[in-house]
Amino acid sequence: MLKLEQISKQYDNKVVLDNISLEINKGEIVSLLGQSGSGKTTLLNIILGLTKMDKGRIIFDNENLTNVKMKDRGFNIVFQDYALFPHLNAYDNIVYGLKNKRGLVTEEELKEYINFLELKPHLNKKISELSGGQKQRVALARTLVMKPKLLLLDEPLSALDGVIKESIKERIKSIAKEFQLTTIIVTHDPEEALTLSDKILIINQGSISQFGTPHEIIHQPKNEFVKGFILKQLQIKRQNIFHLFGEQYA
């Protein structure tokens, strides 16, 4: 379990995060949802250990990680632009992090990750030869082989469209279920959050507006901001809302 306790952060006297507290269970997919500048990426970076908070605690599996360095937390992130090495082929990108972690995964485990993400036909391809969905799967494989305790995804679907986006959604769900891997996703898209997550944290101006399941957020919005942000401001497709949550919100 991941516990965030009273996380706060300021930049130049501007409050970016204000007293964020929540608990995320093992194997859950949780989306951090909010407008640009709401504080969601800052919160992701604090969990990762990339950004230092001003106040609060991070507890993971009963261990206090508040002052633990990023490299020692055992969390891994897939960045929005994938951050793949263009001079290496897909396979070498996947195993790059294992150079200094010999013995972390067996050959069989490595094959399992590659087959799970259906990357075997693409291993010898250059990064420039891969589609957006294939690049995303390579980035996911590179992260999974490091056996992260927590998977962090920064706007993982923003560069994808249509069938490819739906495919990656299913991959992320399958990864969380197959490996019981707690997954935290930053997104600005309510539709992505509602169709991908077990729970959603909606952040507005650095504070929690609501934390709950997609069903709770749609049927029991805690305030006008949640209702407006989800149903009006970003104009989610009517048919998806109808399909997921019923005629009342279609």
From TrEMBL:
Named from the GO MF annotations, one term is: ATP hydrolysis activity
EC number of the protein? 7.6.2.9
What Pfam family is a match for this entry? ABC_tran
Please provide the record's keywords in A-Z order: ATP-binding, Nucleotide-binding, Transport
Reaction(s) catalysed by this chain, per the record, are:
a quaternary ammonium(out) + ATP + H2O = a quaternary ammonium(in) + ADP + phosphate + H(+)
The record lists the membrane-crossing segments as none
- Lipid biosynthesis as a keyword of this entry, yes or no, is no
Quaternary context: The complex is composed of two ATP-binding proteins (OpuCA), two transmembrane proteins (OpuCB and OpuCD) and a solute-binding protein (OpuCC).
Q: What is this protein called?
A: Carnitine transport ATP-binding protein OpuCA
